[in-house]
Amino acid sequence: MHKxxxxxxxxxxxxxxxxxxxxxxxxxxxxxxxxxxxxxKGITKILTQGDAIEKAAVNYSVVNGKLSSAMQHALNIExxxxxxxxxxxxxxxxxxxxxxxxHMNVRYFELGSGKAWFGGGIDLTPHYVNESDAKxxxxxxxxxxxxxxxxxxxxxxQEADDYFYLPHREETRGIGGIFFDHREVINQEKFEHFLxxxxxxxxxxxxxxxxxxxxxxxxxxxxxxxxxxxxxxxRYVEFNLLYDRGTxxxxxxxxxxxxxxxxxxxxxxxxxxxxxxxHSAEAKTLALLKKGVNWLDLDRESEVRL
Amino acid sequence: MHKxxxxxxxxxxxxxxxxxxxxxxxxxxxxxxxxxxxxxKGITKILTQGDAIEKAAVNYSVVNGKLSSAMQHALNIExxxxxxxxxxxxxxxxxxxxxxxxHMNVRYFELGSGKAWFGGGIDLTPHYVNESDAKxxxxxxxxxxxxxxxxxxxxxxQEADDYFYLPHREETRGIGGIFFDHREVINQEKFEHFLxxxxxxxxxxxxxxxxxxxxxxxxxxxxxxxxxxxxxxxRYVEFNLLYDRGTxxxxxxxxxxxxxxxxxxxxxxxxxxxxxxxHSAEAKTLALLKKGVNWLDLDRESEVRL
Lengths: 306, 306
What we know:
2 copies of one chain form a homodimer. Chain A is an alpha+beta fold. Chain A has helices spanning 2-25, 69-75, 131-148, 152-163, 188-216, 223-242, 245-252, 257-260, 281-288, 298-305; strands at residues 31-37, 40-48, 53-66, 82-94, 101-111, 116-125, 165-166, 171-172, 176-184, 267-269. Chain A has one domain: oxygen-dependent coproporphyrinogen oxidase, CATH 3.40.1500. Chain A is built from 10 helices and 10 strands. In chain A, the strands form 2 sheets. In chain A, strands 1-2-3-4-5-6-9 form a 7-stranded antiparallel sheet. In chain A, strand 2 and strand 3 (53-66) form a beta hairpin. In chain A, helix 2 runs antiparallel to helix 7. Chain A is globular. The A-B interface holds A 33, 46, 48, 57, 167-169, 230, 234, 237-238, 241-242, 251, 257-258, 260-262, 264-273 and B 33, 46, 48, 57, 167-169, 230, 234, 237-238, 241-242, 251, 257-258, 260-262, 264-273. Strand 10 of chain A pairs antiparallel with strand 10 of chain B.
């Protein structure tokens, strides 16, 4: 069976990611919780209060059941059917406000009918947007995509812009990245294609983050910058609880709450009508949290846009 | 027209509530924002970093438009129609973890068809549940209800238990209170009945809170108790963003985001699998955050339950 292949591959990827993130932090290791519920089982790995990582979560799960109507809605599919799902998802909240939040997810769904698909992505949420880091991040994602299909990066970058968006704030969650869903497995070749693609993404994830974190893990910061970090974390909470399909699917499918909500930051703040000062780094960040920014060629783009 | 009557009454209640809360805090006064959007207008009042109140918000708004399907879903009604809505909603987050969070809302809806209804309620979310305070709080709500209908308290207390509930945590948001919705205005008498009832609730709200806050505003507390307060605030965020109908309706109707999300606490925390110590005050609080607790007669109840 295909599906147990995917589950085993993803489980191994979870281990690999955790090993690399422990090396990156250098101070604290992951705690492991194996859990089992009627609908399935999983391994939750959590690292907190490290040297540079304040909270990193890496979840692996394999579940199956019958789709409720709420789950169909969350998944945006119409079939009433049994389902099998496995995936790895991870999020990292750094200590330093000058380092970004990162999120990665790869997942595989199979319905009782045999219809199956992959989804996933990586996206970055800097508290302070740095254009050259953003360019490098998108460049690295493009290189992985291009190995599989010359159209993937453009299509999946657009999907990330559309998905990681807070309409009530008119802000993107961060600088996006790539996001894809419902990439249907129509034959064995496609199955191997997507399993390899999602595996490559999961493998690249800790490597990409290491470069970004190491740049700023020891950067000096002011208390006002820490406050800004907490406000941006508040926006992250808003996205995850109001819009994130994984969160909705997890809660609707009676998943393990403590694993699903591990994506939430350690702390978050809300301040009424907080407006950054004109021409500040915070104001610049807000101005860049828009859909459709061409991070690969921002210089030319920004002349037009700003 | 009825509806402008309600809007004027609610606007005056907003002022009255703010005056009383300023007297209660004694140190900081409300800031006022008048706003206007295509769909309507409102007044947002916010008090922050007071002597005893960390954040109090009192919103008044009067809006109208056409119901989108998402709004119909949020309102739990089936009609496609134009709507008029006005209401006052308020929330108070105290500085001291031994004082409770409180929330009050009264609202009036009228559809283009002429169908109209009232809704509202008051509910309390103590960071630490104190049974005698809880009894007193419910007793005061029952007295207001009983002036209008001998069945209201029991019915609306049950509705509050059902509504202010986090299924993914298997916890009530707090000790409940009363909640009612879709109380239809079938004649002039009913209109006056519900306008008086909702006005009485709004008037009682700052008085009820004053007693609760004054009891504990200067109570000593440890840093671990402040951390517990932040965890409970995290649960409050979860409820408001995942389940609250007012929040959903507000965001879906393209309302004023900063006013809608004023219910969120100044700060909140999430800690993976945080479990209070056995027999601690925190553990006692968690054990009491259940549906169906008879706060008016807890002693007898608790013998059965615990």
